[in-house]
């Protein structure tokens, strides 16, 4: 039976880029991790050791930095498009470029009603994400999203009516803490959009839905978030969410002569429920 090379790609991962944008009177600080993946005519490199069509990953890394001065001044989606177009246009052996960007949030410090011109605080665990794919025929796909977004509410959440067997000890409840570390990714219908405005609108919509939804399960809230985002944003084709259930378990205060009326909890890291879903149109 003949042996042949199947799907393959290569690139440079985790190119950590920091950028200071110097405005009149204040600085803007951006920090992003960029990964480049190229797909194309690379069979000879695998089967013959012929590197004549392999753009070095070190060159890819240098390109990320070299183009940042002029082009990384707006959204990560826009910068991803610049990088993808660069690699595809200059390398005819490349059939597809995929650029993934993960941005760390930094905000200017705020004192006495004013933003400090050049001092910043980190944004915690939450990060903004974008993925750009460009094929040699010009087909462009843009995804955006976020990860590490910590969400919690202390009311309007319950979990009842589930199957029970001899191993079930979990009590039903109509009043519990709902907590998750949300990851979301949505696909845009076009590469020519106001990415910043859409991102802020979608993130705010996610927060509003989570906070207001009468949750009967994590799955119930996940779907409600996806449904609302699609209803409010025609520019979004579909959205996928990951919402692990970060459990907060009521602590038994009975041995101490106290009643725990959902006020004292044990926060557990593991194990945890892992809930995922994709919400699409029609």
TrEMBL record:
Pathway: Purine metabolism; urate degradation; (S)-allantoin from urate: step 1/3. One of its GO terms (molecular function) is urate oxidase activity. It is an enzyme of class 1 (oxidoreductase). Pfam families: Uricase. It catalyses: urate + O2 + H2O = 5-hydroxyisourate + H2O2. Signal peptide: none annotated. SUPFAM superfamilies: Tetrahydrobiopterin biosynthesis enzymes-like (SSF55620). Its EC number is 1.7.3.3. Keywords: Oxidoreductase, Purine metabolism. InterPro entries: Uricase. Catalyzes the oxidation of uric acid to 5-hydroxyisourate, which is further processed to form (S)-allantoin. Belongs to the uricase family. This is Uricase. It comes from Hymenobacter bucti. The lineage of its organism: Bacteria, Pseudomonadati, Bacteroidota, Cytophagia, Cytophagales.
């Amino acid at each position: 039976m003949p042996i042949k090379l199947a799907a393959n790609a290569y690139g440079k991962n985790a190119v950590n880029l920091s950028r200071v944008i110097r405005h009149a009177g204040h600085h803007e600080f951006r920090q992003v991790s960029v990964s480049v993946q190229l797909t194309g005519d690379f069979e000879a490199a695998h089967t013959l050791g012929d590197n004549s069509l392999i753009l070095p990953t070190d060159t890819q890394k240098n390109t990320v930095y070299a183009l940042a001065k002029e082009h990384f001044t707006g959204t990560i989606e826009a910068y991803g498009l610049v990088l993808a177009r660069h690699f595809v246009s200059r390398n005819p052996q490349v059939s597809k470029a995929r650029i993934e960007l993960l941005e760390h949030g930094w905000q200017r410090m705020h004192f006495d009603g004013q933003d400090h011109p050049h001092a910043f605080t980190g944004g915690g665990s939450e990060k903004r994400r974008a993925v750009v794919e460009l094929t040699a025929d010009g087909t462009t796909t843009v995804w955006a999203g976020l990860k590490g977004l910590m969400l919690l509410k202390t009311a309007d959440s319950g979990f009842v009516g589930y199957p029970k067997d001899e191993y079930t000890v979990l009590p039903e409840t109509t009043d519990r803490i709902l907590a998750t570390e949300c990851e979301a990714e949505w696909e845009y219908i076009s590469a020519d959009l106001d990415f910043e405005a859409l991102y802020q609108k979608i993130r705010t919509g996610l927060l509003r839905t989570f906070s207001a939804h009468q949750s009967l399960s994590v799955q119930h809230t996940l779907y409600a978030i996806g449904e609302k985002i699609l209803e409010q944003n025609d520019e979004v084709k579909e959205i996928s969410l990951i919402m692990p259930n970060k459990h907060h378990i009521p602590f038994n205060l009975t041995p101490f002569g106290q009643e725990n009326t959902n006020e004292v909890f044990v926060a557990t890291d593991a194990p945890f429920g892992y809930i995922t879903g994709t919400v699409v149109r029609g």
